[in-house]
Design brief:
The complex is a heterodimer of chains A (345) and B (120). In chain A, 38% of the residues lie in helices and 24% in strands. Chain A is of the alpha+beta class. Chain B has 120 residues and is of the alpha+beta class. Chain B has a single domain (31-117), classed as Sandwich (mini-chromosome maintenance (MCM) complex, domain 2), CATH 2.60.320. Chain B has helices at residues 2-23, 83-86, 92-95; strands at 31-37, 40-46, 51-56, 62-68, 71-77, 90-91, 103-106, 111-117. Classes of the chains: A alpha+beta (345), B alpha+beta (120). The interface between A and B is large, with 39 and 37 residues.
Chain lengths: 345, 120
């Protein structure tokens, strides 16, 4: 009799344990939340993160949005944003006298100089004068395709005389920026998004986010993995087919950036002219069809993808190896080259 | 008395199973295309109902979204680059193949479509 009662209570315990298990399995598991913004960095921003509930996810989305909105304003070369000293302000005033900037902007410019040195000038944030001529021609050409035209080569060459990054004077102690060349202009299009993604991802991590995917218009930054033992899977688009997938790559605590001539371009006389300008020819680079770079730092992934797009394949490969980056090239003949990464099975 | 134990254990297992099924509802087939205009949710279109859905904005921008064959596509767009149209037919299977693969986005017009499981 005693024995039977014991086993009955054991069974009851078992039942309760199973129920508790089933319940906790439900409530403790983090859920996936996703949001898209079309209003920042002139591109598509998607954030995927795992959070305990909707409220926690929304709060984190808010934090990330305000971080990114701040960097977008700070790195904007086209207009002023209230009292913030941004790149537009610098381009307007930094040749007159040194201008004090906030730390994030100063760090970006230091990073730009570092990227210039590491890539031997294939990425140059001081190329604003050249890039603005292309930007004007492209904007006008998209607005009015009938009269689309290339920028004038004489003007491009004149502008190229004012792209010496040595004329960008950064004073670390005073956090000031000065242009020694009055016609120097900054443009951080080659690395600004990656740098912003890196800063935003670091802040999110400090707030306790452990699994997040931050996509700034193709600059994809992965925090942690998707699930335990399961990395994020990212499709790399086929440059020849907007609906096609060239390959799928795994990503964990690293960033992936693609540079290609197939997204931002305009058409002149039936030929497409894209937005990545070779500092040597001052024309859109044509060494490879597209290149995708992975690197643990999002800023470097962004800068290196531009650098590799601006280099013949062999030289780009040597640079990527030196920088510890992974890369996939689609060469002009359609062949695919891999470095340090391999396609998902 | 042993049989009684078995009944209790059996009942407990059944109850746990029932709870699992009720609380952990398995992902159904019901998928929707959620349409956003300028970052705000605009419409939800079930994927099992063939539909032509037009988004006409006050600024004159027009996007036509089509639901067919269990997927969604941007049938036409007034934008200049047509990248959204070129993306073609997006199904749930394609959408789940990788992170970020579940969107069709028209950046110039500010219209985006997300494919996802229907949340009850």
């Amino acid at each position: 009799m005693y024995r039977s009662r014991f086993s009955r209570s054991a069974a009851l315990f078992l039942a309760l344990a199973i129920i508790a298990c089933a319940l906790s399995g439900c409530t403790e598991r983090e859920k996936r939340y996703e949001v898209t913004y079309l209003s920042l960095f002139d591109t598509v921003i998607t954030v995927i993160l795992y959070a305990a509930d909707e409220a926690a996810a929304q709060a984190e989305f808010q934090n990330i949005y305000s971080d990114l909105a701040h960097y977008d304003a700070l790195f904007d070369i086209y207009e002023a944003h209230g009292g913030t000293v941004n790149l537009y302000t610098l381009n307007e005033t930094a040749a007159i006298a040194p201008v004090q900037v906030e730390q994030a902007l100063f760090d970006l410019l230091c990073f730009g100089r570092e990227a210039y040195e590491a890539t031997e000038g294939r990425v140059n944030i001081a190329m604003g004068s050249v890039l603005s001529l292309w930007h004007e021609a492209r904007s006008a050409g998209i607005e009015d395709p009938q009269n689309a035209a290339l920028p004038d080569m004489t003007l491009l060459q004149e502008a190229a005389a004012h792209t010496d990054i040595g004329d960008l004077v950064l004073d670390e102690a005073a956090l000031t920026v000065f242009f020694a060349d009055p016609l120097l202009k900054l443009d951080v299009g080659a690395l600004g998004k990656g740098f912003a993604a890196e800063l935003a991802a670091q802040s999110a991590k400090e707030r306790g986010v452990s699994r997040m995917l931050l996509n700034l218009g193709g600059n994809v930054c992965a925090v942690g993995e998707k699930a335990e033992g399961e990395p994020w899977r990212i499709n790399v688009q086929d440059p020849d087919d907007a609906s096609g997938v060239l390959t799928t790559l795994s990503l964990q605590d690293a960033s992936l950036v693609t540079s290609g001539g197939y997204q931002r371009y305009y058409t002149v006389g039936g030929t497409q002219y894209h937005h990545i300008i070779d500092p040597d020819t001052l024309m859109p680079a044509a060494y490879v069809k597209a290149v995708t770079v992975t690197h643990e730092n999002s800023g470097w992934a962004d800068a290196l993808s531009t650098a590799l797009f601006n280099l013949p394949y062999e030289e780009g490969r040597a640079l990527a190896e030196k920088m510890g980056a992974g890369a996939v090239w689609e060469r002009n003949d359609g062949s695919i080259e891999w470095l340090g990464i391999s396609p998902e099975e | 008395m042993k049989r009684f134990d078995l009944i209790i254990i059996g009942a407990a297992l059944l109850l746990a199973l029932l709870l699992l099924v009720l609380l952990e509802r398995p992902k159904g087939d019901a998928a929707v295309a959620v349409v956003y205009v300028n970052d705000a949710e605009y419409a939800q279109l079930p994927l099992d109902v063939p539909t032509l859905f037009t988004v006409e904005q006050e600024n004159g921008r027009v996007n036509v979204i089509e639901i067919r064959d269990g997927g969604v596509l941007m049938a036409s767009s007034s934008c200049h680059n047509q990248l959204c149209v070129q993306q073609g037919h997006l199904t749930m299977e394609k959408a789940q193949s990788a992170a970020l693969a579940n969107w069709i986005i028209c950046l110039p017009n500010g219209v985006s479509i997300e494919l996802k499981e229907e949340t009850p």
